[in-house]
Amino acid sequence: MVSATLLHHPQCSKSRQALALLEAEPQLALHLRLYQQQPLSAEELSTLLAQLIDPPSALVRTGDAAFQALGRSAEDLSHQEIISLLSEHPQLMQRPVLIIENQAKIGRPPEDLLSLLPTATQG
């Protein structure tokens, strides 16, 4: 059994699709974290950025009006600025995010998350 954590937002259709996809994996022990209700600490965000296969800037929801109001580009943000931004505004974190062992992947599209699964669990 492979243990995994899904950073999930139930109101997000992509997050719901990812959850359904991952729940169908019989060898996956999936733990949900509703990150908007239980925001990640600065330390957890730092770890997540280190684990992220995607570029760190991909973790920021740049299309969100709250981010656009900042007048910044996600690509110009340092790791510390991303951590500070997402600590203060967890709703600006891209979702869903799957964490398995020391790797994390953003599920855009949700099927991208299957690349983190060990080959024995992929159908």
UniProtKB/TrEMBL annotation:
This is ArsC/Spx/MgsR family protein. It holds the Pfam family ArsC. SUPFAM superfamilies: Thioredoxin-like. PROSITE patterns: ARSC (PS51353). Belongs to the ArsC family. It comes from Marinospirillum alkalitolerans. Coiled coil: none annotated. It comes from the Bacteria.
